[in-house]
Amino acid sequence: MARPNARLSSKTMAFVLAGGRGSRLRELTDMRAKPAVYFGGKSRIIDFALSNALNSGIRKMAIATQYKAHSLIRHCQRGWSFFRAERNEYLDILPASQRVSEDKWYVGTADAVTQNIDIIDSYDVEYILILAGDHIYKMDYEVMLEEHVETNADVTVGCLTVPREEASAFGVMDVDDSLRITSFLEKPADPPGMPGDPDKTLASMGIYVFKWSYLRELLLNDAEESESKHDFGGDIIPYIVRNGRAQAHRFTDSCVKHDPSAPAYWRDVGTVDAYWKANIDLTNFTPDLDLWDKNWPIWTYSESVPPAKFIHDEAKRRGTAVSSLVSGGCIISGTEVRNSLLFTMVHTNSYAQLDHSVLLPYVEVGRHARLTKAVVDRGVEIPEGLIVGEDPKEDAKWFRVTDTGVTLITQAMLDARAAAT
């Protein structure tokens, strides 16, 4: 049993919902779930939720997976295998496995927890923290847990403060002066303002704190409701708003920053444009997301690779990188790299140019290729002389070009182009 004066995180389990595809990322999620998509040069998206939990003091975690989970499971096995049961630490991976019936997978976010009640019971925890595994942010969950206990809430909902005109894309909270939630509205046309700040709205982050005994009973009752979608945002939270005490927690109160004056950083990198921008933003002189903070590190699986290497020093054939992130194992051979992010083991060849581009691991760039404002999927071989980002109409014939001009390139697209030409 935890000591009475122990941090609340020591009495808490983090349950990470990581089963979604993330279809708006298009071909980037053809072979992997959204939480397994690469981010920031060496991490996966799920590493942020898991690192937040670990840095907050939580040592009991579970990850519910469903859609194309192999790469996600493999990543967690390789990068998050340091938990030790003899220290009362656990990380369980819980794939949808027809535990209830042969034709029933996880049918909603709440159902993913319901189907694993026996496993959660075995953790012997007092609180459960429900997390989405597909957002980029730094947050001290202990602060939210303390607020949950202090307000005697049945559920505490992590909330972003967003401009009212942008809030229609979220599930939003109508709250009173004490931040008690009086109504939960799913993507309303006219979002409510906040007390004292009518131009801002509280939007749900998909982060919830419950006392486990309370949620357990609620889930069992919900499982018997034939009309329920068995979803936290659609069913569980609205029920508590009507029949219990639901409290809003402002992300700004628990956001971890490298500088007090820095903005509260949270990103849903759920579209190709948002994904590209969040990665490219890391090349800024002082990025809003600090990956160098040793006090709140982002843990991940790191391959054993040699340092990055830059070779050739001739006119128009100089291996250089300016305002860029270049990961281990990369070889920049006579290539000019600007404002770009290169993941592990990217190899580029002479006379190539990369500008505002994101290259996932093991990409090979051929000679004389020029890529501007591109996202290149893992293992792609860019052919010699390929030019992308200078003629959107031509690019759109073979690749996926977004409304803002970001070009997504996969090997299947290049193979189809080669077959047609």
Automatic annotation (TrEMBL):
Residues binding alpha-D-glucose 1-phosphate: 106, 171, 186-187, 204
Any one of the GO BP annotations: glycogen biosynthetic process
Pfam family, one: Hexapep_GlmU
Domain Nucleotidyl transferase: 14-283
Site feature (Could play a key role in the communication between the regulatory and the substrate sites) residues: 66, 105
Top-level class of the enzyme under EC nomenclature: transferase
Molecular function via GO: ATP binding; glucose-1-phosphate adenylyltransferase activity
Pathway given in the UniProt record: Glycan biosynthesis; glycogen biosynthesis
CDD domains in alphabetical order: ADP_Glucose_PP (cd02508), LbH_G1P_AT_C (cd04651)
SUPFAM superfamilies: Nucleotide-diphospho-sugar transferases, Trimeric LpxA-like enzymes
Keywords, in A-Z order: ATP-binding, Carbohydrate metabolism, Glycogen biosynthesis, Glycogen metabolism, Nucleotide-binding, Nucleotidyltransferase, Transferase
InterPro entries: ADP-Glc_PPase, ADP_Glu_pyroP_CS, GlgC_bac, GlmU/GlgC-like_hexapep, NTP_transferase_dom, Nucleotide-diphossugar_trans, Trimer_LpxA-like_sf
Catalytic activity: alpha-D-glucose 1-phosphate + ATP + H(+) = ADP-alpha-D-glucose + diphosphate
Annotated EC: 2.7.7.27
Positions of the Glucose-1-phosphate adenylyltransferase/Bifunctional protein GlmU-like C-terminal hexapeptide domain: 306-409
Entry-linked PROSITE patterns: ADP_GLC_PYROPHOSPH_1 (PS00808), ADP_GLC_PYROPHOSPH_2 (PS00809), ADP_GLC_PYROPHOSPH_3 (PS00810)
This protein's record includes keyword Nucleotidyltransferase: yes
Keyword ATP-binding appears in the UniProt entry: yes
Function: Involved in the biosynthesis of ADP-glucose, a building block required for the elongation reactions to produce glycogen. Catalyzes the reaction between ATP and alpha-D-glucose 1-phosphate (G1P) to produce pyrophosphate and ADP-Glc.
Alphabetical list of PANTHER family matching this protein: GLUCOSE-1-PHOSPHATE ADENYLYLTRANSFERASE, GLUCOSE-1-PHOSPHATE ADENYLYLTRANSFERASE-RELATED
Subunit structure: Homotetramer.
NCBIfam families per record: glgC, PRK00725.1, PRK00844.1
Family designation: Belongs to the bacterial/plant glucose-1-phosphate adenylyltransferase family.
Protein name according to UniProt: Glucose-1-phosphate adenylyltransferase
Organism whose genome encodes this protein: Tranquillimonas rosea
Lineage of producing organism: Bacteria, Pseudomonadati, Pseudomonadota, Alphaproteobacteria, Rhodobacterales
